[in-house]
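Project standup — Tuesday

K.O.: blocked on the structure for the chain from last sprint. Re-posting the sequence here as requested.
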Amino acid sequence: MAMSESAATAVEISNPRGLAITSNFDVRPADNVDGYKSFVVGEFTFRRDSYFCHITWPGGRHQLAIDVFLRALMRDVAWGFFYGTVNFDTVFGTTNYYGEVEVFAGATNDAYTSAGRDFIQRFKSDELMKSFREMISDWTNEGYDPFAAPMETGAPWGAKNGENDTAVTRQRVTAKRMVSLPGDTPIRSDEDGFTVNRMFQDVPQDEPEVHVEPGFEHEVSAFNLYAYLSRSDVTWNPSVCSVVKDSLFCPTTEEFILPVEHGNDRCEWFIQLSDEIIWDVKDGSTGKPRAVVTMRSGDVSCMPADIRHQGYSNKRSMLLVWENGSPKIPDLIRAGKAPVVPVSW
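H.V.: unblocked you, prediction finished:
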């Protein structure tokens, strides 16, 4: 998720590599074979065909299955480049510096870095976001929703066929204080188009009764979080549902595979609210395996600040992601002034 504007500007933008800002962006006309535009981002070029995304840069090239690339790109766009690093796969990704973003090939892959073949460029966040938004719009065909579970969406394959901007421009929930408070994000309902998901038909939909002392109507509220999550129309998209200073509760529903390997730049707490998720945990810098964690309903874990993780959920599950949104943490960790784990014994 993106930082709020106030948080993003609260500290000086970090640039530990000292990279210059690149501002070279271009859109090339659609080809006459598959009908998709190509995109130039600095010295990276992105091209898609019926099955693959092809990425090239000086001295290198890489390809991803187009469904893998679009699901990852959708999260990068919707999350505002998220916290830390968004690895689309083991080679390509982005790292957020909250106002500026690094786009890389091989920078978190031990084979690339040890051979000196990694490539990184740095961009203004808003300029890169504009290019990525145009890419996800042009490359998403009618009926395909890169935010949905595979059984809830069409296929991304084939030649250019319409668009689905309604899906790729969804506004992520970012409550100012808490869902359901007057003037804040409302609870979900059939009338608003949020129906109960096929896998959550057994979730009770009753809401708590709240009797507020006169004069405190804007201060006291409650809602049924399980009912709220049962009506989520997207997967792997943590949304801010309650805020207390830098403490953010970001619940989400998960089905199939987390489309990215998320590389943390701070500790990140997970509370499994229902069902089961299996997490592959790797070293954040090299990609080497560190752990496999199975979380079942009621389990709590904390992902350290120096790892990357990717989850697998066979049945749609509910997960509460608890974030410390302070913009100061990444630089404190890089400087060795804050720990990469939540507790030591």
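K.O.: great, moving the ticket to review. Residues 1-10 have pLDDT under 50 and may be disordered. The first strand starts at residue 25 and ends at 28.
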